[in-house]
C-alpha cells in the first residue's frame, strides 16, 4: 500500500552513502568510516559487577517505569562530575537524561524549528545533527571554518542577514567531522552575538573530555551567564554507547520544554541503564577510565597522522586534531570522495565521503577518517592501502 | 531568556493533571492512577543471570553501537514468538525495535502527520498517544465506543467526511483507558474500511497478551492481507518497562520510513537491553512468565470489581475488562472527576480523571482505575476510601 505520508518524509531519504557504508562492515575491510569508540576499552568486568549490584539492590525500581526527567542520582552525578569537568555549575534540575545526544538533537529541532526556519551551523557539520534537524524542514546557513573553528565575522554576517534564525549549532571541541576546536576568543564572541540576537547556542560536546594535549578551553556553557547555551552531553564516547545515555544541560525554563517533548517521544530513558551509569560512577572512577581512553586514542591519532604523512600524496591536506575521534582530509578541487570510496572499497579500506556533512550540498572533495576504532596494525595497513588508492587516482 | 520556539510547543503544555498526579506518588497514598505493572513480578533473579551472560558472552557488542533497525536475533524472536502469539506471520525484516511503543506512536506522528491532518481514534483514547500525535498538530476525530469497542458505523461516517484522514489509531484489546475490546466482526469491518479509503490502521497492542478469560480475538494485523496495519508491540507490560523496549511490525516499505525516522531520532535502541531481552527469551520462557502475570492481575481485577460493587454508589457505572490493566468508571453527568480527585487525595486515594483521554476535551465525568500495580490489601482499602469519597460527593 502507498499511504499519504507527511511532507517531512520527502526530506528524509535513506542516504546513498549509508547504503555504501553498509559495505564497510564486511570483516575484511579496514574501516575508518564509523564514529565508534574502541570496544576493547569498554569496562566489561566492571559492568558485570555493576549490573549485578543494581539488580540486587534496586531490581524492582530498575525494571519499572521512572520519571521522564531521568533518575535523580544520575542527574546529580552528571551535574556534579561531568558538567563540572567542563567548567559548568549546574544542579540536577538543569539535567534531562536522553538516549544519547542524538535524541537531544532531535528534541532541539522539535522545540525550535518550524518549516523554513533558519539553523546556523558550521560548514561542514555533524551528519546526524543535519539529519535530525531535517525532520523539521529548516533551512541551513553554513558558516565557514578555519583552523580555529567557525569564523565569527561570517557568523555575524549571517546573523545580520537572518536575525530570526532559531539557533546556532556548534561542536566546539574536536568537531565532527573536522577535528577542529573553536578558540576561546571566538567562544566569547559567539556568546556576545547570541545575546545580541537572543538566539540560543546548541553546544554539542561529545568529545570535549577526550583532549590529548594542551589546555582545556572552557565550554561555551561555562561562559554563559544568561542561559543562552543548551549543552548536549553523552556517555557514548567516554563510557559506552550501547547504553544509549546522554543528557541536556540548560536553564530550567527551556529544559522544561525539552521534558515535555521527552514525555511524548518515549516517556523516559531506560531505568536500568540510568541506574547502571550512576552506580558505575559511584563505585569506579570515570575520569580514570577516560584517561585510559585518551592514552589509546592519542597513540592512534599519532600513528594515523604519521602514516598519512608517509603514504598520502603531498597535495592532500588533513587536520591535526588535539582530541576526539576524527581527522578531515581535503583532496584537490574536482575530486569526488564518494567516487573514490568505491575504488577504496575494492582495496578493502573505507572512509566517509565528506559531502554529506554539508547540509546544502557541494564540497565533494573531502573525507573523514576515524582513528579511535581501529587497532594500530590496522591503522598502518589501512592508511597504506588508502595512500595507494590516492596515488593511483589523484 | 525567552527564545523563539516552534509553533508546536504551543500545543504541548505540561498538563495540570500531570502536576496533580505527582501528588499521587507520596507513599501514604493508595494510587490507582498509574499504568504500571506489578514490580513484585519482575524476573529479577533471571535478569541477574541474563545480564551476566550477555556481558560475559558478548560484552563488547552489547556496549557498542548497533544497527538502527535493532539487534537481529531480537527482531527474529519477536517475529517468531511475540507476533506469532497474536497470529501474525512476520519475519525479522518486518520488525523495528523502538523505545517502548511510545516511541512507535511518536514516529507514527512523524511519518504521517502534517499540521491540521486528521487522526481518527477511539473516544476516549490513550493519553500518551494523544500527546505524541499533538507534537505534529493534527486534528482528532473521535469515534464513540460501546462495549464492543469503536462503533464501526460511526467510523464509516467519519471516513466519508474525512476521506483523507491519515490513519486510524486503535487499541483493540483491553483498551487504555476503558478496558474494552474490539469485537472480531468490527476488526474485519475496520480493515474493509481501511482498504476502501487507503488509510493505515495503527494497532497499538500493549495488553493483548494479558487476557484473563475467553478466547483470544485475532489481532487486526493477523487479518491484514494488504499491508494496511502498522502494529505496535511492547515488552513493557509482559516483561519489564524499565528496559524501554517495544517494536513496530509492518510491511517493509512503510517500515523503511520508520527506520529513517529512528536513525534521526536516536540512532538505535539500547544494544545491551536488546541483547538482554533476546537472551531472556532464549534461556527462559516468556509465555510462562506472562501466565504468572495474568494470574495475579486476574485476581486483582476480580477483587477490584467486587469491591466496586460493594463500595460505590449504585448510579456509578464501570467496565468489566477481560484483560489488561484498567477499568473505566463513569460518574453521573455534571460531576467533574478532576475536582473529585482533589477530594480523594485528601483521603489518600488516587485515580486519573478521564477528561485528558478525550483529545477534543469535554467528558469530565469519568475516571480510570488501574488494578495491576496495587497489592490486594491496598485494593480493598483504596476502593473503600474511594467509595466513601463518592458517596459523600455525588
From TrEMBL, chains A, B:
Residues 57-386 form the Aminotransferase class I/classII large domain. Its EC number is 2.6.1.1. Its cofactor is pyridoxal 5'-phosphate. One of its GO terms (molecular function) is L-aspartate:2-oxoglutarate aminotransferase activity. InterPro entries: Aminotransferase_I/II_large, Class-I_PLP-dep_aminotransf, PyrdxlP-dep_Trfase, PyrdxlP-dep_Trfase_major, PyrdxlP-dep_Trfase_small. GO terms for biological process: alpha-amino acid metabolic process. Pfam families: Aminotran_1_2. Keywords: Aminotransferase, Pyridoxal phosphate, Transferase. SUPFAM superfamilies: PLP-dependent transferases. Belongs to the class-I pyridoxal-phosphate-dependent aminotransferase family. Homodimer. This is Aspartate aminotransferase (AspB-4). It comes from Caloramator australicus RC3. The lineage of its organism: Bacteria, Bacillati, Bacillota, Clostridia, Eubacteriales.
Amino acid at each position: 500500500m502507498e499511504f499519504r505520508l507527511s511532507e517531512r518524509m520527502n526530506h528524509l531519504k535513506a542516504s546513498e552513502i549509508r547504503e555504501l557504508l553498509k559495505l564497510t562492515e564486511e570483516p575484511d575491510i579496514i574501516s575508518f568510516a564509523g564514529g565508534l569508540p574502541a570496544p576493547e576499552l569498554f569496562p566489561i568486568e566492571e559492568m558485570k559487577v555493576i549490573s549485578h549490584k543494581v539488580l540486587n539492590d534496586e531490581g524492582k525500581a530498575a525494571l519499572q517505569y521512572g520519571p521522564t526527567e531521568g533518575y535523580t542520582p544520575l542527574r546529580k552525578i552528571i551535574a556534579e562530575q561531568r558538567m563540572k569537568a567542563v567548567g559548568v555549575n549546574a544542579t540536577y534540575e538543569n539535567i534531562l537524561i536522553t538516549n544519547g545526544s542524538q535524541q537531544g538533537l532531535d528534541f532541539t529541532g522539535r522545540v525550535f524549528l518550524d518549516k523554513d526556519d533558519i539553523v546556523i551551523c558550521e560548514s561542514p557539520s555533524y551528519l546526524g545533527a543535519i539529519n535530525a534537524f531535517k525532520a523539521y524542514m529548516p533551512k541551513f546557513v553554513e558558516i565557514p571554518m578555519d583552523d580555529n573553528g567557525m569564523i565569527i565575522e561570517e557568523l555575524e554576517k549571517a546573523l545580520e542577514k537572518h536575525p530570526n534564525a532559531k539557533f546556532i549549532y556548534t561542536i566546539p571541541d574536536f568537531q565532527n567531522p573536522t577535528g577542529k576546536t573553536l578558540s576561546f576568543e571566538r567562544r566569547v564572541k559567539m556568546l556576545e552575538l547570541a545575546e545580541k540576537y537572543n538566539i540560543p547556542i546548541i553546544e554539542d560536546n561529545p568529545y570535549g573530555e577526550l583532549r590529548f594535549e594542551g589546555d582545556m578551553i572552557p565550554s561555551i556553557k561555562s561562559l554563559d551567564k544568561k542561559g543562552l547555551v543548551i549543552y548536549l552531553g553523552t556517555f557514548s564516547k567516554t563510557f559506552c554507547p550501547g547504553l544509549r545515555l546522554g543528557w541536556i544541560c540548560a536553564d530550567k525554563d527551556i529544559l522544561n520544554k525539552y521534558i515535555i517533548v521527552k514525555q511524548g517521544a518515549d516517556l523516559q530513558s531506560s531505568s536500568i541503564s540510568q541506574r547502571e551509569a550512576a552506580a558505575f560512577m559511584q563505585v569506579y572512577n570515570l575520569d580514570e577510565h577516560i584517561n585510559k581512553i585518551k592514552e589509546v586514542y592519542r597513540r592512534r591519532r599519532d600513528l594515523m597522522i604519521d602514516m598519512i604523512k608517509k603514504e598520502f600524496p603531498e597535495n592532500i591536506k588533513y587536520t591535526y586534531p588535539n582530541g576526539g575521534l576524527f581527522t578531515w582530509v581535503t583532496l584537490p578541487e574536482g575530486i569526488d570522495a564518494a567516487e573514490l570510496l568505491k575504488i577504496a572499497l575494492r582495496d578493502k579500506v573505507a572512509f566517509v565521503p565528506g559531502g554529506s556533512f554539508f547540509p546544502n550540498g557541494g564540497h565533494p572533495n573531502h573525507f573523514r577518517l576515524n582513528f579511535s576504532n581501529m587497532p594500530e596494525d590496522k591503522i598502518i595497513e589501512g592508511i597504506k592501502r588508502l595512500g595507494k588508492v590516492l596515488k593511483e587516482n589523484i
